[in-house]
Amino acid sequence: MHLKEQLNLAVGGIHTTSAVLTQTLFELSAHPEYIPELRKEVVDTLVKFEGAFSKAALWDMHKLDSFIRETHRLNSPNDILATLQRRAIQDVTLSDGTFIPNGTKLEFPTFAIHRDSEFFDNAPDFDGFRFLKLRQEDDKEGGKHHYVSARRDMLGWGLGKTACPGRFLADVEIKLIVAFILMNYDIKNPDGQGRHAHVHFENQV
After folding, report:
1. Nearest-5° angle of CA 118, CA 120, CA 123?
2. pTM (two decimals)
3. DSSP conformation class of 151
4. Sign of torsion over alpha carbons 191, 192, 195, 199
5. Mean of pLDDT values over 63-68
6. For residues 194 and 134, what is the distance between their CA atoms, to the nearest angstrom?
7. Is 164 among the annotated ligand-binding positions?
8. Topology (CATH) of 11-80+108-184
Protein backbone atom coordinates (compact mmCIF):
# COMPACT_ATOMS: atom_id res chain seq x y z
CA MET A 1 0.00 0.00 0.00
CA HIS A 2 1.36 3.42 -0.94
CA LEU A 3 2.07 6.03 1.74
CA LYS A 4 -0.72 8.31 0.48
CA GLU A 5 -3.27 5.51 0.81
CA GLN A 6 -2.01 4.67 4.30
CA LEU A 7 -2.30 8.31 5.36
CA ASN A 8 -5.81 8.52 3.93
CA LEU A 9 -6.85 5.47 5.96
CA ALA A 10 -5.26 6.90 9.10
CA VAL A 11 -7.01 10.24 8.69
CA GLY A 12 -10.29 8.48 7.95
CA GLY A 13 -10.05 6.54 11.19
CA ILE A 14 -8.81 9.32 13.46
CA HIS A 15 -10.87 12.37 12.57
CA THR A 16 -14.22 10.57 12.53
CA THR A 17 -13.65 9.01 15.95
CA SER A 18 -12.56 12.31 17.48
CA ALA A 19 -15.52 14.08 15.84
CA VAL A 20 -18.06 11.69 17.38
CA LEU A 21 -16.31 11.93 20.75
CA THR A 22 -16.43 15.72 20.60
CA GLN A 23 -20.11 15.71 19.66
CA THR A 24 -20.83 13.29 22.51
CA LEU A 25 -19.27 15.74 24.98
CA PHE A 26 -21.29 18.56 23.42
CA GLU A 27 -24.49 16.55 23.92
CA LEU A 28 -23.55 15.74 27.52
CA SER A 29 -23.00 19.45 28.15
CA ALA A 30 -26.32 20.32 26.54
CA HIS A 31 -28.20 17.50 28.32
CA PRO A 32 -26.63 17.18 31.79
CA GLU A 33 -29.75 15.39 33.02
CA TYR A 34 -28.33 12.20 31.49
CA ILE A 35 -25.05 12.38 33.41
CA PRO A 36 -26.19 10.83 36.74
CA GLU A 37 -27.63 7.73 35.06
CA LEU A 38 -24.68 7.32 32.72
CA ARG A 39 -22.20 7.78 35.55
CA LYS A 40 -24.05 5.24 37.72
CA GLU A 41 -24.02 2.73 34.87
CA VAL A 42 -20.26 3.12 34.43
CA VAL A 43 -19.59 2.71 38.17
CA ASP A 44 -21.97 -0.25 38.54
CA THR A 45 -20.48 -1.97 35.51
CA LEU A 46 -16.94 -1.55 36.81
CA VAL A 47 -18.00 -3.09 40.13
CA LYS A 48 -19.55 -5.99 38.24
CA PHE A 49 -16.37 -6.53 36.22
CA GLU A 50 -14.01 -6.03 39.17
CA GLY A 51 -12.76 -2.64 38.05
CA ALA A 52 -11.70 -3.73 34.57
CA PHE A 53 -12.55 -1.63 31.51
CA SER A 54 -12.73 -4.83 29.48
CA LYS A 55 -14.46 -5.27 26.15
CA ALA A 56 -17.22 -7.17 27.95
CA ALA A 57 -17.62 -4.34 30.47
CA LEU A 58 -17.90 -1.71 27.75
CA TRP A 59 -20.38 -3.90 25.86
CA ASP A 60 -22.49 -4.04 29.02
CA MET A 61 -22.88 -0.25 29.19
CA HIS A 62 -26.18 -0.11 27.30
CA LYS A 63 -27.13 3.44 28.31
CA LEU A 64 -23.77 4.85 27.27
CA ASP A 65 -23.99 2.88 24.03
CA SER A 66 -27.41 4.37 23.31
CA PHE A 67 -26.29 7.91 24.12
CA ILE A 68 -23.33 7.68 21.75
CA ARG A 69 -25.41 6.10 18.98
CA GLU A 70 -28.00 8.88 19.27
CA THR A 71 -25.20 11.44 19.16
CA HIS A 72 -23.86 9.79 16.02
CA ARG A 73 -27.34 9.74 14.48
CA LEU A 74 -27.77 13.50 14.75
CA ASN A 75 -24.11 14.47 14.43
CA SER A 76 -22.54 12.01 12.04
CA PRO A 77 -19.12 13.22 10.82
CA ASN A 78 -20.43 12.74 7.30
CA ASP A 79 -23.78 14.49 7.77
CA ILE A 80 -22.79 17.55 5.77
CA LEU A 81 -22.05 15.31 2.81
CA ALA A 82 -23.79 12.27 1.43
CA THR A 83 -22.35 8.90 2.34
CA LEU A 84 -21.87 5.62 0.53
CA GLN A 85 -20.68 7.33 -2.61
CA ARG A 86 -20.63 4.96 -5.56
CA ARG A 87 -20.28 5.12 -9.33
CA ALA A 88 -22.22 2.82 -11.65
CA ILE A 89 -19.84 0.65 -13.70
CA GLN A 90 -22.56 -0.38 -16.13
CA ASP A 91 -26.11 0.55 -17.09
CA VAL A 92 -28.63 -0.74 -14.56
CA THR A 93 -32.40 -0.56 -14.15
CA LEU A 94 -33.73 -0.71 -10.59
CA SER A 95 -36.81 -2.68 -9.55
CA ASP A 96 -38.96 0.48 -9.65
CA GLY A 97 -37.92 1.17 -13.24
CA THR A 98 -35.34 3.87 -12.48
CA PHE A 99 -32.58 3.75 -15.10
CA ILE A 100 -29.02 4.51 -13.99
CA PRO A 101 -26.55 5.00 -16.85
CA ASN A 102 -22.99 3.76 -16.67
CA GLY A 103 -20.74 6.33 -14.95
CA THR A 104 -23.49 7.89 -12.82
CA LYS A 105 -22.39 8.90 -9.31
CA LEU A 106 -24.78 7.75 -6.56
CA GLU A 107 -24.94 8.96 -2.95
CA PHE A 108 -27.15 8.39 0.08
CA PRO A 109 -28.55 11.47 1.89
CA THR A 110 -27.41 10.54 5.39
CA PHE A 111 -28.55 13.78 7.02
CA ALA A 112 -32.13 13.33 5.78
CA ILE A 113 -32.28 9.59 6.50
CA HIS A 114 -31.12 10.03 10.09
CA ARG A 115 -33.93 12.56 10.65
CA ASP A 116 -36.69 10.70 8.80
CA SER A 117 -39.86 10.08 10.81
CA GLU A 118 -40.33 6.86 8.85
CA PHE A 119 -37.44 5.41 10.85
CA PHE A 120 -37.50 7.33 14.15
CA ASP A 121 -40.19 8.79 16.40
CA ASN A 122 -39.63 12.51 16.98
CA ALA A 123 -36.69 12.14 14.64
CA PRO A 124 -35.27 15.69 14.89
CA ASP A 125 -35.12 15.55 18.71
CA PHE A 126 -32.21 14.24 20.76
CA ASP A 127 -33.20 11.27 22.94
CA GLY A 128 -30.12 9.86 24.62
CA PHE A 129 -31.85 6.61 25.56
CA ARG A 130 -33.69 6.16 22.25
CA PHE A 131 -31.73 3.05 21.28
CA LEU A 132 -31.79 1.64 24.80
CA LYS A 133 -35.59 1.66 24.64
CA LEU A 134 -35.56 0.17 21.14
CA ARG A 135 -33.20 -2.55 22.35
CA GLN A 136 -35.50 -3.34 25.29
CA GLU A 137 -38.57 -3.43 23.03
CA ASP A 138 -36.90 -5.67 20.46
CA ASP A 139 -35.63 -8.64 22.48
CA LYS A 140 -34.88 -10.93 19.54
CA GLU A 141 -33.02 -8.35 17.47
CA GLY A 142 -31.76 -5.99 20.15
CA GLY A 143 -28.29 -6.22 18.67
CA LYS A 144 -29.34 -4.18 15.67
CA HIS A 145 -29.57 -1.14 17.95
CA HIS A 146 -25.97 -1.37 19.22
CA TYR A 147 -23.72 1.56 18.42
CA VAL A 148 -21.63 -0.51 16.01
CA SER A 149 -24.63 -1.78 14.03
CA ALA A 150 -24.68 -0.58 10.42
CA ARG A 151 -28.24 -0.37 9.08
CA ARG A 152 -30.11 1.34 6.28
CA ASP A 153 -31.55 3.86 8.77
CA MET A 154 -28.14 4.48 10.40
CA LEU A 155 -25.53 5.08 7.73
CA GLY A 156 -22.77 6.63 9.82
CA TRP A 157 -20.74 3.43 9.48
CA GLY A 158 -21.67 2.75 5.88
CA LEU A 159 -23.68 -0.36 5.03
CA GLY A 160 -23.31 -4.00 4.15
CA LYS A 161 -20.00 -5.71 3.49
CA THR A 162 -18.26 -2.35 2.99
CA ALA A 163 -19.29 -0.98 6.42
CA CYS A 164 -16.41 0.58 8.34
CA PRO A 165 -14.21 -2.24 9.72
CA GLY A 166 -12.77 0.12 12.32
CA ARG A 167 -16.10 0.82 14.01
CA PHE A 168 -15.43 -1.73 16.77
CA LEU A 169 -12.17 0.02 17.70
CA ALA A 170 -13.89 3.42 17.55
CA ASP A 171 -16.64 2.09 19.84
CA VAL A 172 -14.08 1.06 22.47
CA GLU A 173 -12.07 4.29 22.19
CA ILE A 174 -15.09 6.58 22.54
CA LYS A 175 -16.62 4.64 25.43
CA LEU A 176 -13.33 4.49 27.35
CA ILE A 177 -12.82 8.24 27.10
CA VAL A 178 -16.43 9.20 27.87
CA ALA A 179 -16.55 6.77 30.80
CA PHE A 180 -13.34 8.25 32.23
CA ILE A 181 -14.70 11.78 31.90
CA LEU A 182 -18.01 10.81 33.52
CA MET A 183 -16.19 9.30 36.49
CA ASN A 184 -13.89 12.25 37.03
CA TYR A 185 -15.63 15.41 35.85
CA ASP A 186 -18.94 17.25 35.84
CA ILE A 187 -19.90 18.72 32.48
CA LYS A 188 -22.25 21.57 31.68
CA ASN A 189 -22.47 24.55 29.38
CA PRO A 190 -21.81 28.04 30.77
CA ASP A 191 -24.96 29.57 32.23
CA GLY A 192 -27.20 30.98 29.54
CA GLN A 193 -25.43 29.20 26.69
CA GLY A 194 -26.98 26.48 24.57
CA ARG A 195 -25.39 23.59 22.76
CA HIS A 196 -22.10 24.33 21.03
CA ALA A 197 -22.71 25.22 17.38
CA HIS A 198 -21.59 22.93 14.58
CA VAL A 199 -18.58 23.79 12.49
CA HIS A 200 -18.48 21.69 9.32
CA PHE A 201 -15.51 20.93 7.13
CA GLU A 202 -15.18 18.80 4.02
CA ASN A 203 -14.11 15.48 5.48
CA GLN A 204 -14.63 12.65 3.04
CA VAL A 205 -11.61 10.44 2.42
Report:
1. 105
2. 0.85
3. B
4. negative
5. 98
6. 28
7. yes
8. Cytochrome p450 (1.10.630)
